[in-house]
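Review this:
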Amino acid sequence: MNVAHYRALTLNGQGGKPIAVALTPGWEEDALRDLAALTGAPLLACVTDLTGDTARVRYFKGRAEKPDSDSGALAVTAHLARIGAYRGGLRVQSPGGIMRVGGNEHGGLIPQLGAPDDALGHEAPLADEDLHALLSALNLRATDLVGPPAQCGTATKRNAVLPLAGVADVAALQPQPDALAEVQTRAGLSGVIPCTFNAPGRDVDYRFFAPARGLPEDRAGCFTFATLCAYMAHRHYGEGARTLTGTQASGSDAPGGLRAEVYLRDRSFTVATGGAVTPLTSGMNPTHAHEVRA
């Protein structure tokens, strides 16, 4: 059984998220979980069916199933294009829903589609109590902020955006996970995004913390970047179409690189986010054979 290994949302071919992809049509439940446990990858995407432009996929972290994954959907699209199984826009259907991915073997973009009554672009101020607690948990002062903090995302999935002066300020952050988790839970936040819009060669440099969800820090995420794109489109750029770029997990040994196509008109906001997918070849073969009985 060949399992192909990739990194999704890479920056200059490095960093990003390790993803393994396997074609597993007709496999039984236990076999899928056994394979996931053997790969050693943080996430395995099992393509259980490919019919027309729809790939049915299940994601596993070890033996535990994950309902969906934007980076996994990008890796699946890149893998199917790379082996010649499918090229062009793909519908990646998993237990968590459907993602429409436009891309090829080098990466792609995913439109960030919310429900009609829960569209991306929702913004609200942070309560003073929550803002002070967030700053304290990040070992920051109010004077460290260089722009208005806000809750951005959808009405039901909101991130706190905290603009700082420069890349070094973002990279140097050492949050207190327990304190951050407490305010994240109390304020109903999906996560916290300290960022800077003074990043050489890109539009934003940022980090994402969500300890209350079991994510002390995430290296790359399409929805996280979409949140920032909404903030930038409304506050920095105004109406029109543009391409935005960002670096996530600033200062880490494996930062992620993301790209977005953004359109804002009459307060209507649309965005597709994604990035590059790189075959993993450094120190090992792109594919590894595992003996697993289907």
